[in-house]
Design brief:
Length: 441
């Protein structure tokens, strides 16, 4: 405890880190305040009564991702999901459209162009999605019926999404952690206390306090496994050739280093992207007024087809993002250029093939485990856990919360270690080595 307090003092003593943390907290506070600002003209009392009568399903999940703004008809009701959907489209377009592929390879200038195109696409998605949200989510009795109000509401919802996007970018640039992920996480956490106490009261009333304790223990075990899979790495040994020192008079033996290949190299982005796509059937079903069929099945949070498609997309997105984030060919070329080699493997193409094969072996179990964690809420609901609490029992919410917290802690850790302070953990490293498996946990 003493070391932890000392670490907090060290964090506060670093002016840059202190300013970044305060900036992040301030921008997150603005996001939370904005989620309670209702679209002008909407009757909050009527909306609350109709929402409570028709709540449930994946709509509750979408409301959780926006910090409740979706169900409150807030100016931030669309949240950050349109921007994420636009990012998905741009990433997929980079595979098939040569000009976008070229921009992806142009470095910083290409990244700025892609970001600008993503913002324009976000506006288009918002303009298309906002009317659907208004007509299908806000009860006619709770809103004006004029065309002027509809136009202003669409403009407000679009502007609200763009403002949330700007907040996320400001957090990433001027704050600490990934801004987009933090905004999603803060929306998720905001509903955790209510869901926790609702589950507790329900269990106590039914004489099932022991069952509630079992649920909490199981949840802690899931969190521990999630941390292991997110932090897990496989260290590939790399030997560097001998170098001449002292003006070429003596040879210095090459150092032995390691390439840490993560079990989950893509982080939480596959889960966020897959979840964004899973909201599409809900939007279409609402827009068309569909009450049955495949769209309704895919919008059923606890349904078989929803969870099957969700798990499949997580696995595919994990491979997709791993291929984007990790380039074995470039790693092999850099290693060869610096005189390094993997013992027993020829430099060049053989090394690239070896790294690619090792990465595939790591990504497969990692992606399957992520998919399993993502569908745990549906399994928990089968055992009688209420939906509001089951969302935190594994699932997208848990994966995002754990991943974002670990990523933010690692950034704080980097600031501390770069100034020769002890890190947040006793070892100075968030990820420790598990000698039995050669993995960090």
């Amino acid at each position: 405890m003493k070391n932890f307090i000392e670490t907090i003092k060290n964090i506060w003593s670093i002016e840059e880190l202190r300013n970044r943390i305060l900036t992040t907290l301030g921008l997150l506070l603005i996001f939370r305040i904005g989620s309670y600002v209702v679209i002008p003209g909407v009757n909050s009392d009527v909306l609350a009564s109709t929402s409570s009568a028709s709540g449930g399903g994946i709509a509750d999940l979408l409301s959780m991702f926006t910090g409740g703004a979706f169900s409150r008809a807030s100016i931030f009701a669309l949240g950050i999901m349109p921007y994420i959907s636009a990012s998905i489209i741009m990433q997929l377009a980079g595979i098939a459209i040569p000009p976008i592929q070229k921009m992806q390879k142009e470095g910083e200038s290409g990244r700025k162009k892609l970001n600008q195109y993503t913002r324009f696409l976000t506006i288009i998605i918002c303009v298309l999605q906002a009317p659907s949200y208004i007509f299908t989510t806000i009860d006619p009795a709770a809103r004006p019926q004029s065309a002027f109000w509809l136009t202003t509401a669409v403009i407000l919802l679009t502007t609200g999404c763009l403002f949330v996007m700007w907040l996320g970018e400001r957090i990433t640039d001027k704050g600490i952690g990934n801004g987009i992920s933090l905004l999603i996480m803060i929306g998720i956490i905001s509903s955790l206390p209510f869901a926790f106490f609702q589950e507790l009261v329900a269990r106590v009333d039914n004489g099932g306090l022991v069952i509630f304790i079992v649920e909490i223990v199981a949840l802690l075990l899931v969190i521990a496994m999630t941390i292991m899979i997110i932090q897990g790495t496989r260290k590939i040994p790399v030997q560097y050739a001998r170098k001449m020192a002292g003006g070429g008079t003596r040879a210095v033996s090459g150092a032995r280093q390691y390439i840490p290949l993560k079990v989950n190299s893509s982080g939480v982005m596959p889960i966020i992207f897959a979840q964004a796509i899973m909201f599409v059937p809900l939007y279409i079903a609402q827009a068309t007024g569909t009450q049955s069929g495949i769209l309704v099945e895919l919008a059923n949070f606890g349904g078989f087809w929803y969870n099957l498609l969700f798990a499949t997309m997580i696995i595919l997105f994990t491979y997709f993002y791993t291929a984007i984030m990790v380039n074995p060919t470039q790693m092999a070329d850099d290693m060869k250029r610096n005189g390094g080699f993997i013992p027993g493997v020829k430099p060049g193409k053989s090394t690239a093939d070896y790294l690619d094969n090792m990465l595939s072996k790591l990504t497969l179990p990692g992606s399957i485990f992520l998919a399993f964690i993502a569908i745990l809420p549906a399994i928990a609901m089968l055992f009688g856990v209420k939906q509001q609490f089951s969302i935190f029992f594994g699932g997208t919410s848990l994966l995002i919360m754990v991943g974002v917290v670990l990523d933010t802690l690692q950034q704080i850790e980097s600031h501390l270690l770069s100034r020769h302070y002890d890190g947040l953990m006793k070892t100075g490293k968030i990820a420790g080595k598990n000698p039995a498996f050669g993995m960090a946990s």
